[in-house]
Design goal:
There is one protein chain. The chain is mostly beta strands. The chain has two domains: 179 residues, Sandwich (Jelly Rolls), CATH 2.60.120.260; 36 residues, no CATH class. Helices cover 4% and strands 37% of the residues. The strands form five sheets. The protein has a six-stranded antiparallel sheet with strand order 5-4-6-12-9-10. A hairpin with a 4-residue loop joins strand 15 and strand 16. The protein is globular, with a radius of gyration of 19 Å.
Length: 256
């Protein structure tokens, strides 16, 4: 364990992160971590959809340290009161994408280690997907959602829609997460639904709580479907999905 400071000056304890690739089972060279500072906002009045926060920088007045949830002091927020709706705003420049190996002809994947509990994701104002399940990883092919650089200047259409992108921020990723602590049909593990944790019930965990990263891949890639190991026999069986082009709903990849 290591002690780390937060934007509010408090000390928090967190596992030491080695900046290694978040998914060792299928490691790729061309990637970049999105963990670190991001724009953050609570949406207690549920206004974000009606006001199109994915197009507007103004609501994101606070910052959070990803991938820590807002209940954790390590996030820089450290508030344990109930806030079922939270939003995140992550900025990525074209220079950063190029540095992680992305270039024309390749696909760009956006990965989330986990978001508790329901997530909706926009990239440059385009809704790229939804996911439900606070313990499972998911990803989206965001290549076709990326806006051309001219649209992302501070004087472009994005600014006229209520948001203002600094010149260095070529692309904007927005995440909306909804986590109802009182919903008994929703898997909670040992997360408490009370004001304070007690007995075996731990503090709540809302929104992003595992690594977020981008990776650039060729048009045809392999995704792991299943890896089975039998240690006593020294045997391992792997099944992979070969995916060509953007992954769309209803597509059936081949398996080997």
């Amino acid at each position: 364990m290591t002690s780390m400071g937060t934007p509010q000056g408090r000390l928090a304890h967190a596992s030491l992160h080695d900046d290694g690739y978040p998914r060792p089972i299928l490691r790729r060279a061309d990637w970049m971590s999105l963990d670190g500072l991001a724009g953050f906002a609570y949406d207690d009045a549920n206004l974000g959809i009606a006001q199109q926060w994915w197009l507007d920088q103004e609501p994101f007045e606070r910052t959070i340290v990803l991938p820590f949830p807002p209940e954790s002091p390590a996030s820089g927020i450290g508030e344990d009161s109930v806030h079922p709706l939270v939003w995140y705003r992550i900025e990525v420049s074209d220079c950063q994408l190029a540095a992680c190996g992305h270039r024309p002809g390749r696909r760009l994947l956006l990965h989330f280690g986990a978001v508790d509990h329901r997530a909706t994701v926009w990239v440059d104002g385009v809704r790229v997907g939804d996911h439900e399940g606070g313990q499972s990883a998911f990803s989206f092919d965001i290549t076709d959602a990326l806006a051309p650089p001219s649209r992302e200047s501070s004087s472009g259409p994005a600014a006229s829609q209520g948001g203002s992108h600094p010149p260095a921020a070529s692309h904007v990723i927005v995440v909306r997460a909804f986590d109802d602590p009182y919903d008994r049909s929703q898997p909670r593990g040992k997360q408490t639904w009370r004001d304070q944790p007690e007995s075996i019930w731990y503090e709540r965990c809302t929104g992003i709580w595992r690594p977020v990263w981008l990776e650039s891949v060729p048009p045809a890639v392999c995704d792991p479907a299943r890896v089975d190991s039998e240690r006593p026999r020294g045997h391992r069986e792997s099944r992979y999905r070969a995916v060509r082009g953007p992954r769309t709903a209803g597509a059936r990849p081949c398996e080997d």
